[in-house]
Design goal:
Blueprint: H1 5-15, H2 53-72, H3 102-123, H4 133-145, H5 150-169, H6 173-176, H7 181-186, H8 205-218, H9 221-233, H10 237-241, E1 248-249, E2 254-257, E3 269-272, H11 275-286, H12 304-318, H13 328-346, H14 351-362, E4 371-373, E5 375-377, E6 387-389, E7 395-397, E8 399-401, E9 411-413, H15 417-420, H16 425-437
Antiparallel strand pairs: 1-2, 2-3, 4-9, 5-8, 6-7
Length: 450
């Protein structure tokens, strides 16, 4: 055992049921309570204390009508019930109709409730059948008048659109038509330059190092591992809490996020882990302080609030700026880009090896490299590839379906070595980092860059 006795003692405390850490953020390390229910919010906190009891009941009844639609068209349960499928049943593609994520459910229903509160207070609407397109327009305009961020307004629009979609599918034709093209045009546009994760653009690698040091010093190696996995590997907070010991591949320095309900959109992926971080994970694993290998490494003792409070505390103790948990993904992008650059400079990496790494990622699961109707770049009469310009100003190749000489669709895997080798190396580098973050789009890394 290479760990000093003092560190082993700190780890034993970290894995005990009640470590009882005293922190300014409220993080204690104590095992999260099972079947814990949040206390109901007060009328003042819900901003309905100005309404009478009768009015509150009318508002709740209105909001309940919307919740019923969301329940009918959502699949967030892991258990099979009659006429309902689970994520495990989704075999074709990487997405499915309805809502599959608990966090997405909570966000959409919360925003729709806010919209319904607005129409109740301003128009006395008591039934969702009374909703009209003008109500959606007035609500979006109220958000614009409040000078809310374009992203926030866009999220409200998306939530109401999803609500309308569910209404239409349930036979409520009037509800299905409350969102139109005009509403989409009302949402302010934003560019990738304007959109930043976190108040100051998210975490840097130096922030991760400061926070990891503070976590190890003031708590334990287990906590240091948590910060470094977040900072260098970039899992979303709910994905982070679902990582199990059996997902950790010590031999190949990877974490396999391939279990049911483990990732956003049921999208399996493989996350590379720095060798030093993997060594520390192995040190903790070999102490045998956990019960079973299918136990969540952090999530079995830590709730989402606990994780956020830990991040806040180690940011303070380490002298790093505090930002949202999701902002670790910016540091992960920076880290992996830096590693790729180093390996290219040393000659340990070239275009062909990048393609091989990409194929390892997408071949981890059939859903990541599906058999599909192939597409090819559209060309002008001179044979030159044609491009389209997106709203954010980026250029993309125009793609068209491929057919053979007999007019039959040309089928094949989405990603092949031959096709990837025709791509520019900067595209391949962005694609590789995007795969680490669990995205298909190569331009997604732009939102995390300075």
């Amino acid at each position: 055992m290479s760990l000093p006795e003092q560190e082993i003692f700190k780890l034993q405390r970290a894995f005990s049921p009640k470590p009882g850490y005293k922190t300014s953020s409220g993080y204690t390390g104590n095992a999260k309570k099972r079947n814990y229910k949040k206390p109901p919010q007060s009328a003042k906190k819900r901003k309905i204390d100005h309404l009478s009891n009768k009015q509150r009941k009318e508002l709740f009844d209105l909001q309940t009508q919307a919740i019923v639609l969301f329940e009918k068209h959502s699949n967030v349960t892991s258990k099979k019930t009659e006429n309902k499928v689970t994520k495990k049943d989704v075999k074709d593609g990487l997405a499915a109709d309805g809502i599959w994520s608990v966090s997405e459910w909570e966000t959409y229903t919360r925003r729709v409730k806010t919209f319904l509160k607005f129409v109740y207070e301003n128009h006395g609407i008591k039934n969702i059948k009374e909703l009209k397109p003008k109500h959606v327009g007035e609500f979006l305009q109220s958000q614009i008048d409040k000078n809310n961020a374009a992203k926030t307004i866009g999220n409200y629009h998306s939530a109401i659109q999803k609500f309308a979609e569910f209404g239409g599918k349930s036979g409520l034709k009037s509800v299905g038509k409350i969102v139109n093209k005009h509403h989409k045009e009302m949402v302010p546009r934003y560019s990738k330059e304007q959109y930043r994760r976190g108040k100051k653009g998210g975490y840097d690698i130096s922030d991760v190092q400061k926070m990891a040091w503070a976590a190890g010093k003031h708590f334990s190696l287990h906590h240091r591992n948590a910060i470094e996995v977040l900072g260098y590997c970039g899992p979303r907070i709910d994905e982070f809490l679902r990582i199990k010991w059996e997902n950790v591949d010590f031999q190949n320095n990877k974490i396999w996020l391939v279990d049911d309900n483990q990732t956003k959109g049921a999208r399996p992926r493989v996350v590379p882990v720095p060798e030093k971080v993997m060594k520390n994970l192995k040190e903790v694993f070999e102490l045998g302080l956990h019960k079973t290998d299918d136990q969540n490494i952090w999530g079995d003792k830590m709730s989402e609030n606990d994780a956020r409070n830990l991040i806040k505390e180690v940011a303070r103790l380490g002298g790093a700026k505090y930002s949202a948990a999701h902002d670790f993904r910016r540091a992960a992008v920076k880290y992996h880009e830096k590693q790729i650059k180093k390996e290219l400079k040393r000659g340990d990496l070239n275009k062909e090896k990048i393609v091989e790494n990409l194929l390892q990622f997408v071949n981890a699961d059939p859903k990541l490299n599906p058999w599909e109707h192939k597409k090819e770049p559209k060309r002008d009469k001179n044979g030159k590839i044609m491009y389209r310009k997106s709203k954010d100003g980026n250029k993309y190749r125009k793609m068209v379906p491929m057919y053979d000489g007999n007019g039959n669709p040309v089928m094949g895997f989405r990603y092949t070595k031959e096709e990837l080798m025709t791509r520019r190396i900067d595209y391949l580098k962005n694609m590789l980092v995007s795969q680490v973050l669990g995205h298909n789009r190569t331009d997604i890394t732009a939102v995390y860059k300075s």
